[in-house]
Every structure is written in structure tokens, then in C-alpha cells.
Amino acid sequence: MLRKTVIIIVLYLIPVFYLAAQDIETEKESVKKVIQSAYIDGLHNKGELIDVEKGFHPGFVLLGVKDNSLTQYPIYTWIESFNKRKKDDPTPIKPENKIVCEYLQIDITGNAAMAKIQLKRNNELIFTDYLLLYKFDDGWKIVSKTYFRH
Predict the structure, then answer these.
(1) What is the chain's alpha carbon radius of gyration, rounded to the nearest angstrom?
(2) How many angstroms separate the most distant Cα atoms in the chain?
(3) Is 115 exposed, middle or buried (0-12, 13-18, 19+ CB in 10 A)?
């Protein structure tokens, strides 16, 4: 009797775990889409400002280290330099010069996510980034970044 009960419970739980795994994969794809449109295609490859604003939380901060001190670069400052760069040179980036992204890891727990990515130009590694995201009512937003320049 105990054996039948255990088998029934296991058979019941298999689809539950399968559906949960599918949900995580769907969320990972959503995270990748935000990173691609707002960060890679947007900020790095001179994309559309609306896509940048949609994918970044207004409280976003890029954290860095310079001369052994922590630096902070808020999104509104980054957007100002983005707009200036597009105004100074409105020419689209040639496909061979675009930044491409390789996703090394995406980890999601509840409404929090972390993405470890590598950025390359012309097959040359230039950055390893760690992006933190939260899921809000209107979707995933990038809230913070740390990085290593290669």
C-alpha cells in the first residue's frame, strides 16, 4: 500500500516539476530578450531609445571600480551619453562592428535574476558583465551592472 502511494505521488509530481522547469525556461528567454533589445541592440549598438528605457529600471546603476574606488553611473547619465553619441554620429553601426552577446549563465529565483554575459566585437572579447534584473508588473528590468573589461 505504501509503495502504491509513493508511486502515485511521484507520478503526480513529475508533471508539476516539468511545468515549473518550462516556466523557468520561458522566464530566461524573457530576460534574454530584455538584455538583447535594451542593452545590446539599444545602448551598445545605437538602437532605439524607447527600447533602452523599456528595459532599464529608472533606478539602474552601473557599478565599477576606478583607482580602487567604487564608481556609480546611473542610467539617466548613460542615456545622455547614448543620445549624444547618436547625435554626433547618426550612422548605424556596421554589422561587422556590432557588439554581440554570449549568455554564459542566467539564474532566476522568484522575481530576481542574474545574467552573466560576454560582449564581443569582431570576435574579440571586450567585457564580461553581471546584470541584475527584477521582474515588475510590466516585465523584467535591468537594475544593476558590474563588469570586467578584458
Answers:
(1) 20
(2) 76
(3) buried
2-149 adopts what CATH topology? Nuclear Transport Factor 2; Chain: A, (3.10.450)
* Domain segments of the chain as ranges: 2-149
DSSP string, 40-60: IIIIITT--HHHHHHHEEEEE
pLDDT at 34: 98
Residues 6+ apart with CB under 8 A from 83: 49
Give the span between the Cα atoms of 133 and 38, in whole angstroms.
12
Whole-angstrom Cα distance, residue 57 to residue 61? 9
Q: What are phi and psi of 38, to 5 degrees?
A: -85, -45
Asked whether the beta carbons of 142 and 55 are under 8 A apart, the reply is: yes
pLDDT tens, 80-103?
999 999 999 988 888 889 999 999
Residue closest to 138 by CA, chosen among 103, 111, 106, 107: 111
- Give pLDDT tens digits for 37-85: 999 999 999 999 999 999 999 999 999 999 999 999 999 999 999 999 9
